[in-house]
Structure formats: C-alpha cells, structure tokens
User: Which sequence fits this backbone?
C-alpha cells in the first residue's frame, strides 16, 4: 500500500511542522506500517526532532537521504525543520550566557558562522531572544532585563528582613 505509506510519511512531517506531541502510530490503522523503512526513517527523524537532538536529526537525514530527500514534498520542508531545530538548540545553548561567541555556536550547531549569524538575526527579529550581534568581535550580547528585577526583589526582601533581624538581636541582648 504505497499510498498509505506516503500518507503516514506526510502525517509524521505534519506532526513535526506543527510541533504536535500526539504519536501518529497510536492508532491501530497505522501500527502495521510502523516498521516500513520509509516510515521508520521519518519516525527516527521525528524522535530526534522532539528531543531537539540536532546531531541525531542530521545523522538520520544523512543515513536516510534517499528515503527522505527523494520525496519532493518532504524535501521541500526539511530546511524549515532544520531551521526550527537549530533555533531551539540555539535558544537552549545561549540561555546561561550574557555573551557568547559565534564560532562556538557554529561548532555546536555544526553550521557555518554566516548561517549562525543569520539564525541569530532571525531570532532577534522574531523577539525570541533579546540581544544584539557584535560582528566585529563575533559575539551575541544578550540583554538580561530580568536581572534588574531579580536584584530589585532581593533588595526589597533584604530591607524587609532588616527589622526582623534587629528585633531578634534586641531580644537576644536583653537575655
């Protein structure tokens, strides 16, 4: 049933594009096709995609190039999937930093520095990351507005604790 296999491949592709968490192979109609090599390639791609495992995603793409890329409909959306997974990995990668070097990100994502910069620009313009790119020093400098709010909250809390600590100290000295 080649049409059913194509439909399942497209269903798995649609799940990835929609970031849908429902497993298409939970239905009894789809289970018999789960082990088909064409569907299996897409399923492995889906598994890597949902885990945001860029290295596994690229290795599945490479290992199943004929199965995946020979279908013109699927090939049309592979770049969108790669951009999405790279965006997710980039956002996760930069989370603990206030400044990160483009060459380092390039190495982690396994793509050229120009592509990293374009991805960063796209995320900045989409307001998914707040920051600016220093092209001269090849760094992404992140804006951390929430840091100011955090320190203001800590300062307010410590000011509220001051009378309590003074009261406890006064009671201790009176004994």
Assistant:
């Amino acid at each position: 049933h080649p049409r059913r296999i194509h439909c399942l491949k497209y269903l798995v592709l649609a799940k990835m594009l929609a970031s849908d968490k429902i497993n298409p192979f939970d239905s009894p109609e789809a289970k018999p096709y789960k082990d088909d090599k064409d569907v299996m390639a897409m399923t492995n791609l889906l598994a890597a995609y949902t885990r945001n495992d860029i290295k596994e995603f690229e290795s599945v793409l490479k290992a199943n190039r004929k199965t995946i890329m020979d279908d013109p409909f699927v090939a049309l959306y592979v770049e969108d999937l790669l951009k999405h997974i790279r965006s997710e990995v980039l956002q996760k990668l930069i989370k603990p930093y206030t400044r990160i070097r483009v060459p380092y990100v390039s190495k982690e994502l396994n793509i050229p520095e120009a592509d990293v910069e374009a991805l960063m620009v796209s995320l900045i313009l989409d307001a998914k990351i707040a920051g600016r790119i220093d092209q001269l020093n090849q760094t992404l400098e992140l804006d951390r507005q929430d840091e100011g709010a955090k320190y203001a909250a800590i300062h307010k809390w410590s000011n509220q604790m001051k009378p309590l600590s003074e009261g406890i100290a006064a009671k201790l000295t009176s004994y």
User: Anything to note?
Assistant: The first strand starts at residue 99 and ends at 101. Residues 19 and 50 are 8 Å apart (CA to CA). DSSP finds eight helices and three strands in the chain. The radius of gyration is 25 Å.
